[in-house]
Amino acid sequence: MKLSFGQEMRLAQKQMLAPRMIQSMEILQLAQQALEERLEQEIQNNETLELEEPDRAEGEVEQPAEPTSSTADEQPLVVDQEHANQADFERSYDWSAEYPDADEERPRSSASRLDEASDRYLDVMANMEERSETLSDHLHDQLALYDLSERQRAAADRVIYNLDANGYLQLPMEELVDADGPEGQLEDLTAALEVVQGMEPRGVGARSLRECLLLQIEGATPEAVRLRRIVKDHLEDLAGNRLPLIEKRTGYSIEEIEEARDELQRLQPKPGALYATSIVPTVRPDVFVEQDEEGRWKVRLDDVDMPNMRISPYYRQLLISPSTDPATREYIKRKINSAQWLIESIEQRRSTLLKTAQAIVDHQTRFLAEGPEAIEPLKMQQIADRIGMHVTTVSRAVDDKWLQTPRGLLPLRGFFVGGTVSADGEEVAWDTVRMRLQEIIDAEPKDRPYSDDDLVEQLGKRGIKLARRTVTKYRKAMKIPSSRQRRDWKLAKTPRSRKSTPPQPRDDTSVQMPPTERVQAESDGAAAG
Question: Fewest beta carbons within 10 Å, which of 29, 195, 411, 443?
Answer without folding.
Answer: 443
